[in-house]
Amino acid sequence: MSQEPETRPGRSRMSPEDRRRQLLGIGLRMLVEKPIQDLPLDAVAAEAGISRGLLFHYFASKTDYYDAVVGAALRRVLRNIAPDEDAAPDVALHQFVDRFYAQIERRREFYLALVFGNGALSLGGEGVDTHRMTIARRIVTATGLPESALPAAHGWTAYVEDRALRWSGLPEDARAQRDDEVDHACRALHALIALEGETR
Question: How confident is the model over 148-175, as pLDDT tens digits?
C-alpha cells in the first residue's frame, strides 16, 4: 500500500484511506459551524498536519473535497434516521419520521446549510433530489411497500422535510407535539399511496 508523499515533521504517516477519512472528519466537524462553501482548506490541512497542496493528493479539487464532505454528512443523516432493521412496517415508518424530526430539531441550522446552502449543491453529482430519493427508497424497503409506491414516497419525503423544518423553526411553546406531527406524517403517506392507487 502506498504512503503519503509528504507529511510535516513530527506527524506519523497515515495510509491514504486513513488520511482521507481524517480530512473528511475535519470537514464534517467544521461544517457544523459554517456553510460548506466557507470551509477554509488551509485550516483543514493545518489541522491534519499536512500542506494544502497535499490535500489535493486525496481530492482532485476544492469542489471534489466539498462534495465528499457533504456526501459524508448526508450519509450520517441517513444513518441517524434509519429505522431498526427488524422493525415491523408500521413501526419502521413511525421510527423514520420520529428520528427525522429529532435530527432536524437537534441540528436544524446544519441541515438547512447542508441541503439548501449555496443554492443547489452538487453533492458528488447526486443532488438534493437524489438524497430525497434515497430516503424514499429506504422507506419503501423498510415498510414493505411495492416499488410502484416510490414516486409517492419521494414526494412525501420532501413534504415531511419541509414540515419538519417549519415545525422546528417555531418557538417550542408554539409547536405541535412531535408525536402528533409524526402521526400526521405517517397517515399522509398511507393516504397518498391510496390516492395514487385510485388513479391507476
Answer: 999 999 999 999 999 999 999 999 999 9
| CB-based burial label for 170 (10 Å; 0-12, 13-18, 19+) | exposed
Distance CA 13, CA 43 (A): 19
CA distance 127 to 199: 30
Q: How far is CA 94 from the centre of its chain?
A: 19
Closest CA to 148 of 194, 109, 98, 106: 194
How many whole angstroms separate alpha carbon 95 and alpha carbon 25? 27
* Cell, residue 119: 443554492
pTM: 0.77
| pLDDT per residue as tens digits for the range 99-134 | 999 999 998 888 887 777 643 344 444 556 677 888
Residues 6+ apart with CB under 8 A from 125: 67
